Amino acid sequence: MALNKSLVWLRRDLRAFDHAALHHALQQSKTVYCVFIYDRAILDSLPRQDRRVGFIHACVAELDAELRQLGGGLIVRHADAAVAIPQLAAELGVDAVFANDDYEPQAIARDARVARALAAQPCLWFSFKDQLVFDKSEVLSLSDKPFSVYTPYKHAWLKKLRAQPACTAPLPVAPLAARFAAPAGPAALPTLAELGFEPDALASLAIPTGMSGAAKLFEDFLARLANYASARDFPALKGPSYLSLHLRFGTLSVRHLVRSVVELIDRGVGGEGAPVWLAELIWREFYAMILFHHPHVVGAAFKPAYDAIEWESGPRADADFAAWCEGRTGYPLVDAAMAQLNQSGYMHNRLRMVTACFLIKDLGIDWRRGEAYFALHLNDFDLASNNGGWQWAASSGCDAQPYFRIFNPVTQSEKFDASGRFIRRYLPQLKALDDSEIHAPWLVPRMLLEQKGIRLGRDYPEPIVQHDAARQRTLARYAVVKGPH
Ligand code: FAD
Prior knowledge:
The chain has a 5-stranded parallel β-sheet, sandwiched between helices. The protein contains 21 helices and 5 strands. The chain has helices at 20-28, 40-43, 51-69, 81-92, 105-120, 150-163, 202-205, 210-222, 228-231, 244-249, 254-266, 273-293, 315-325, 332-344, 349-362, 367-377, 383-393, 409-416, 421-426, 446-451, 467-477; strands spanning 3-10, 29-39, 74-79, 96-100, 124-128. Strand 1, helix 1 and strand 2 form a beta-alpha-beta unit. It is an alpha/beta fold. Flavin-adenine dinucleotide (FAD) binds at residues 232, 240-244, 247, 280-281, 283-284, 287, 349, 352-353, 356, 374, 378, 380-382, 385-386, 388-390, 393. Residues 4-133 form the Photolyase/cryptochrome alpha/beta domain.
């Protein structure tokens, strides 16, 4: 034990178990303080009603209570983190600050600023891998280069996991908890109102929060895991895990998730679902690796040739974009998906692909506008995965959908919501339509629609674009990138 006092700065790792920074700080220090900063540099850019802030607020309260049980507690500040961390380190007189790695370019720059300020004090800075099983350059091709295609990356990732099973071993906290220091001063945490936010949106959604919420969701999902492969593509079904929000804020340990699923696979009880779900967690690591090695993807195409594409602009494009955002395109699956996003902050993966493809390839609108809308509205917004998903749909990303493969929103609807159950959930005005009619109401004879109490343009929009014509326009638009990209 080399250090006297240390400070652990928790960010997107809001848990008190299996936690790299807490584990290493406790191992190496006599006394450990913990801090969470509501970072003004981020919060000031958000709308005053933000489900993510509500979620974090609930998670911080649970984390503080859990740390207090263990003999510690959270110091909570509302400040510019890059300034507040060195200040707090000086106030407490700590020898070192511990944190877990954050791979987003802005976070890397912020952490570098903090590390420089600490070095001048002097105070040490340690940062650990925690958010991912393998990060940065841990999984490389045979020629020691970062991968840009997912499938060989996945194979190399799985091979590495088999070779180094210890990389998912838990990093315990509780056995060393006697070294936690309780924070001095009042125990009261800031309210949402004190942080400048309206305590709205999250409460009505009953989203499970904190470590306890994450554990409950994972337990619930394990009972459905075997069916994941067959259920995951159908938005009306409870197919996926709904864990993305918890992975984003670290209320669970990804090591634990991977270890649990691999154990089920090895025991032959994970069914078809377990390896497919593991492959999704590997997509998350793949996109994090891409962002780390290619930070230019923030704002630009992974494949630069795609930056030459001319997107629609002007009042018509703005009106189309607004219709997409508000779920008024006249394509029921797209509109129901956008309603799901707007009402809950979640959107099913299949629908993220469908709506992204529709914006880019049916409306000809720049993928960056859609990416920004998702970034604002998704509870689970993650820069790497969101950018990866959008560039996949735009065909500009690594291992993306080829530009000439253009989802037909009606066919997608007939295939993945055949009975219209998902559509009816979000567009009750279309309830009366038959299963065969609900995917493309404009094809239903007007008289029949009227009999069912629906008038297009009054109860539900006419389609804002004709898919076949849009498809041709997209092929022409993408002609600038034809070639070996
Ligand atoms: P599950 O199906 O249970 O998957 C388990 C976990 O694997 C997810 O929680 C997630 O961490 C990871 N995962 C699954 N699919 C992907 C994927 N395609 N790429 C990367 N990781 C994946 N995911 C985000 O976490 N944040 C985002 O901001 C985000 N934006 C997206 C935007 C677009 C246009 C697209 C096509 C996909 C996006 N995804 C994003 C990926 C995926 O849609 C979500 O991770 C998934 O829908 C979350 O639901 P779940 O937790 O129930 O997923």
